[in-house]
Amino acid sequence: MITAEQKPIEEIIEYIAPYDRILLVGCNECVTVCAAGGRKEVGLLASALHLHSLKQGKTVDIKEITLERQCDPEYVEELVSLIDSADAILSMACGCGVQTIAGRYKDKPVYPAVNTKFMGASESQGIWAERCKGCGDCLLGVTGGVCPVARCSKQLMNGPCGGTSNGQCEISPDTDCAWRLIWERLKALGMEKRYIEVMVAKDWRPAGGGGPRRIVREDLT
Amino acid sequence: MGNFEPEIVGLCCHYCAYTAADMAGSKRISYPSNVKIIRVPCTGKVDAIHLMKALEKGADGVFVAGCLEGDCHFKNGNTRAAKRVVYVKNYIESLGFEPERVAMYNISAGMGERFAQIAGEFTEQIKALGPNPVKNIKSNHQAAGQ
Ligand code: SF4
Ligand code: SF4
Predict the structure, then answer these.
(1) Please, what are the domains in chain A?
(2) What distances in angstroms separate CA A56 from CA A62, B97, B134, one per listed residue?
(3) Complex ipTM value
(4) Most informative mutation of A142, A143, A149 for ligand 1 (most atoms within 8 A of CB)
(5) pTM of the entire structure?
(6) Which residues of chain B have a CB within 8 Å of the CB of A54?
């Protein structure tokens, strides 16, 4: 999933300070699962903003709505009937959702209420960790299912580096060395030969080095 | 400020604090009438939004009272609630409110005296803080709207 975290409340307050009527829009997908911008968090942020403005002696009109997916035009269309009653939109979706709204409602200012962090997986309740950088040419088939792009701090294709220590990455004792994990997996699978083979330099064009990426599926358009 | 009588919401677990409050009543141990009790099936059911809404609607203080540590009827509802209380304390502090307006307590069903003591202590704590600042503004706005 795409993970996100709520922005510092001070930053959000500053964004919306000039407006009296806010449309606060959550998203039912990734940001709901990582507890950053689903219906629950929309309610909590609305409550916080109400408390803040009441303390300043004002009231602010906040309409709460959580869309099925904010990165899909057909769901963003659902805001049509609400848009005129808002001076600004505050989005709790990832950056993809914020931009979909900005592209559709061109005359309304849109502000992000979360910081989009990374593509990751849940390690346990309340803990998420980066797993993929969307490099466009997945290597997991040759690295035993452990990603060296997202999980090796140096994005080495032939690791580990000299900094690996007791199986942990030199950046922090809390970070597993990706190449230690790769080696352990390949060994467990009896695929040590893969590890011996030198990987050629990675082509970073599909990873975004060639500019913004798109997928066009002619069969679906 | 001298005659300020705070409104306090106590979210009490059915298996412990609620029963303790009941026991305080049946033992004729008095505790401040400022505390309005809401019974919850487990403090693990209490979410940050419930604490926030209580403050938003004008409560001067809100506390969560769950079972003693390790004694939760549903295993760890009380420890989860304690974490949410800390989260809300930090959240309201960043909004300029005193974190002491929100509290977590752990008591058992048999502790009627302790419940009364907690209710008294928390009421005094909130009296010392003064009214929830949103309260007057809310009532002014309502009056203006009428
Ligand atoms: S190799 Fe590329 S696509 Fe595969 S998990 Fe890593 S970053 Fe993602
Ligand atoms: S210690 Fe391991 S994960 Fe860290 S940079 Fe070196 S090879 Fe990569």
Answers:
(1) 2-118 (3.40.50.2300), 135-207 (no CATH)
(2) 16, 12, 9
(3) 0.91
(4) A149
(5) 0.93
(6) 56, 133-134, 137-138
